[in-house]
């Protein structure tokens, strides 16, 4: 093979070139150490390699790189597949029941109740001064971080003016439950939960914390292989950020500040029904469960568990208050035989009671399924008659029933309940125990909870129930003298399509599941429910700065004569009204005043537009270029305007509180009208001035 023509020297100094004749001479000379790649110094450039050799070298190099990349990808796929396989195996074979239930059974009939999680206010009544027995409540609506921060800012502003020193109850829903729970804990122990850090803590990006936790392998394993779910994850984040693992029992005890600790009433919704669920000692007692050890963060997370984004919270129903059905009967003929032949005390006792009442006499010509239904009907009759069987609870009957120590404790706890549910459930367990071979034991039963918004997104229903109980159960010697409610409503006024100037609204996961449409549909239902509540309460019909809402049925006499509540409502749609309350009444003077304060009006309108465009999320997010600090400041400014700039409402509320509770802290001079509008730009339609788009300017 001949050498190719040499390339010219490009000035790179002396070039080495392999001389084939010289190389062959070295090899043939027999020099043992002769180098096979000997080079001779020459002034000529080396010959270029053969094109086929060069192609072979490139191909080898290419396939070497391909093999390396393929090996790396293969190892990555193998590792990921192994991890996914372990997760799926855990999902398939793991016994998820090993994780304890969130709520535990009541273990003692004398277990103290959580007084500040109930609708009974013995700790708030003044036995001597009748005028001080006035109900003061706070209701905070839902709305994610928007509602949480807005509620916290309004609470801070009201607290600074002394209005919250006499609050008896706080009712909260969804995002509003965060500031409600934190404030109640702060009233109990301000050193552990300082009020000064509440607003900053609530403005944190909770969604970022959730996503950071989800990316951890341990969290993924828990999510796929145990009953641990996304709502549990949110509860853990809330404990780290806000509540420090607080339990409901932490609310009880002497207040560390001025005034009593308010009752915390957190609301959720029950899946499969249109009913709300109240985290209270009364409701947990009906479940045969203990509230003292339940984490407050789990109650708040359940209240904020937006459908689809967060999972339902399952609470165990320990009451056993469920009737028998045909499927619970293993063998109806065996039950009849057992009933006639049994000798133990409990079985004989039941036989005696049945003979004195409705004896089960099955027809042998009936089918087995019909006999199962007959037996289930008889057993349900037994449960319905249990309250008249007082001697069923005697110690000798329980001792003869062959119960374990745990079952005896459960029966003893049921005896201590005033409610019929847990006691009826205990009777069911006794019957099942006596006929264990004929009846199936009751499987665990659960109540599933999710966001409290669908049942009452204002928290108004619960606060009116609290006011009703406060008025009706007040001491006869010192009846209730009035009712006042602060209603914090973070509802955004959706006046236009937020995507009006965008054809394609999909982004991220919306290409797979249209979460925005789901959110819009749910928000529409919540809006309709809210509007109905406001309509029923005759909201916005009065001319005064405060509203008067009925809390009792019209015409129903009350022991104290209290029929209505004064309501001070804080909402974004009242920002413009607050500004217009400063307008002089005269037409000429009013028009001149509006021209002189055109900038202040624009500032109030801009602030309302930005807040109405703030999303319902676990972080503050909203219009274009609006950062989290900017939105937080906007919510703080709105709270200050509604609390301090509204002089008419503040003065009327102050007079009411002084009438019922005495002197109030000295109030400073009202702030000037809010006038900052250059930080955001609002685009409106030219005809009706409907807001079409909002964006922050970055100033």
What features would you describe in this structure?
The protein has 699 residues and is α/β, with parallel strands linked by helices. The protein contains 24 helices and 15 strands. The chain has helices at 20-28, 51-93, 144-160, 177-188, 198-202, 206-214, 217-225, 230-243, 281-286, 296-303, 332-341, 345-355, 368-384, 395-400, 405-415, 420-434, 453-456, 460-472, 515-536, 575-580, 587-596, 598-612, 628-645, 647-661, and strands spanning 15-17, 40-42, 104-105, 134-140, 169-173, 263-270, 276-279, 289-290, 313-317, 445-450, 482-488, 547-550, 564-570, 680-684, 691-696. Strands 4, 5, 6, 7, 9, 10, 11, 12 and 13 form a nine-stranded mixed β-sheet that branches. Strands 1-2 form a two-stranded antiparallel ribbon. Strands 3-8 form a two-stranded antiparallel sheet. Helix 3 links the parallel strand 4 (134-140) and strand 5. It is flat. The N and C termini lie far apart (77 Å). The model is unreliable at 1-18, 30-43 and 91-96 (pLDDT under 50).
Q: What's the gyration radius in Å?
A: 37 Å
Pairing-aware structural class of the strands and helices? alpha/beta
Major beta sheet summary:
9 strands, mixed
Strand proportion? 5-15%
The helical percent reads: 40-55%
- Determine the N-to-C terminus distance: 77 Å
**Global outline:** flat
| Number of DSSP E strands | 15
Mean pLDDT: 79
DSSP helix count?
24
Residue runs with pLDDT of under 50 for 5 or more positions:
1-18, 30-43, 91-96
Topology:
Blueprint: E1 15-17, H1 20-28, E2 40-42, H2 51-93, E3 104-105, E4 134-140, H3 144-160, E5 169-173, H4 177-188, H5 198-202, H6 206-214, H7 217-225, H8 230-243, E6 263-270, E7 276-279, H9 281-286, E8 289-290, H10 296-303, E9 313-317, H11 332-341, H12 345-355, H13 368-384, H14 395-400, H15 405-415, H16 420-434, E10 445-450, H17 453-456, H18 460-472, E11 482-488, H19 515-536, E12 547-550, E13 564-570, H20 575-580, H21 587-596, H22 598-612, H23 628-645, H24 647-661, E14 680-684, E15 691-696
Parallel strand pairs: 4-5, 4-11, 5-6, 11-13
Antiparallel strand pairs: 1-2, 3-8, 6-7, 6-10, 9-10, 12-13, 14-15
Helix pairs in contact: 2-7, 3-4, 3-23, 6-8, 8-10, 15-16, 22-23
């Amino acid at each position: 093979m001949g050498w190719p023509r040499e390339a010219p020297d490009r000035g790179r100094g002396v070039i080495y070139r392999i001389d084939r004749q010289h190389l062959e001479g070295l090899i043939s000379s027999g020099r043992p150490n002769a180098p096979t790649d000997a080079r001779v110094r020459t002034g000529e450039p080396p010959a270029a390699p053969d094109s086929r050799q060069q192609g072979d070298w490139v191909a080898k190099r290419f396939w070497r790189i391909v093999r390396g990349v393929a090996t790396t990808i293969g190892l990555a796929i193998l590792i990921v597949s192994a991890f996914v396989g372990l997760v799926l195996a855990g999902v398939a074979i793991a016994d998820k029941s090993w994780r304890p239930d969130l709520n535990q059974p009541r273990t003692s009939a004398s277990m103290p109740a959580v007084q500040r999680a109930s609708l009974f206010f013995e700790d708030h009544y003044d036995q001597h001064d009748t005028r001080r027995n006035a109900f003061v409540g706070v209701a905070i609506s839902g709305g994610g971080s928007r509602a949480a921060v807005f509620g916290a800012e309004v609470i801070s502003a009201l607290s600074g003016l002394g209005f919250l020193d006499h609050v008896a109850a706080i009712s909260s829903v969804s995002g509003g439950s965060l500031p409600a729970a934190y404030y109640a804990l702060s009233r109990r122990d301000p050193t552990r939960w300082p009020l000064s850090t509440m607003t900053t803590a609530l403005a944190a990006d909770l969604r970022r914390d959730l996503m950071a936790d989800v990316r951890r392998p341990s969290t993924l394993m828990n999510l796929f292989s145990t009953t641990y779910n996304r709502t549990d994850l949110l509860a853990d984040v809330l404990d780290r950020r806000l509540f420090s693992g607080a339990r409901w029992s932490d609310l009880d005890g002497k207040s560390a500040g001025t005034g009593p600790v308010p009752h915390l009433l957190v609301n959720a919704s029950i899946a499969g029904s249109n009913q709300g669920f109240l985290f209270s000692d009364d409701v947990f007692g009906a479940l045969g469960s203990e509230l003292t050890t339940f984490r407050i963060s789990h109650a708040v997370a359940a209240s904020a568990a937006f459908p689809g984004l967060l999972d339902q919270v399952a609470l165990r129903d320990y009451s056993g208050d469920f009737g028998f059905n045909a499927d619970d009967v293993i063998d109806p003929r065996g039950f009849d035989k057992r009933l006639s032949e049994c000798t133990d005390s409990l079985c004989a006792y039941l036989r005696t009671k049945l003979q004195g009442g409705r004896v089960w006499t099955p027809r042998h010509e009936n089918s087995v399924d019909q006999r199962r239904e007959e037996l289930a009907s008889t057993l349900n009759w037994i449960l319905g008659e249990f309250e008249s069987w007082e001697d069923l609870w005697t110690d000798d009957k329980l001792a003869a029933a062959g119960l374990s120590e745990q079952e005896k404790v459960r029966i003893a706890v049921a005896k201590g309940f005033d409610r019929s549910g847990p006691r009826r459930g205990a009777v069911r367990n006794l019957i099942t125990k006596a006929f264990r071979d004929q009846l199936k034991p009751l499987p665990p039963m659960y109540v599933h909870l999710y966001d409290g918004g669908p049942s009452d997104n204002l928290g108004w229903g619960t606060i009116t129930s609290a006011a009703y109980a406060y008025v009706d159960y007040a001491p006869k010697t010192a009846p209730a003298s009035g009712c006042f409610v602060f209603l914090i409503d973070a509802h955004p006024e959706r006046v236009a399509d937020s995507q009006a100037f965008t054809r394609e609204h999909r982004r991220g996961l919306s290409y797979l599941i249209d979460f925005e449409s789901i959110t819009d549909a749910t928000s529409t239902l919540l809006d309709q429910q809210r509007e109905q509540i406001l309509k029923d309460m005759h909201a916005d019909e009065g001319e005064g700065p405060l509203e008067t809402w009925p809390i009792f049925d019209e015409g129903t006499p009350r022991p104290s004569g209290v029929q209505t509540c004064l309501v001070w409502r804080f909402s974004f749609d009242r920002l413009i009204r607050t500004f217009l309350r400063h307008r002089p009444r005269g037409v000429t003077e009013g028009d001149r005043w509006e021209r002189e304060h055109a900038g202040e009006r624009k500032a109030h309108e801009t602030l309302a537009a930005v807040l109405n465009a703030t999303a319902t999320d676990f972080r503050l997010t909203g219009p274009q270029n609006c950062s989290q600090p900017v939105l937080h400041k906007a919510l703080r400014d709105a709270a200050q305007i509604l609390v301090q700039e509204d002089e008419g409402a503040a003065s009327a509320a102050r007079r009411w509180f002084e009438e019922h509770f005495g002197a109030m802290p000295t109030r400073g001079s009202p702030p000037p009208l809010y006038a900052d509008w250059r930080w955001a730009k609002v685009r409106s339609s030219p005809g009706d001035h409907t807001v079409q788009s909002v964006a922050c300017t970055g100033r």
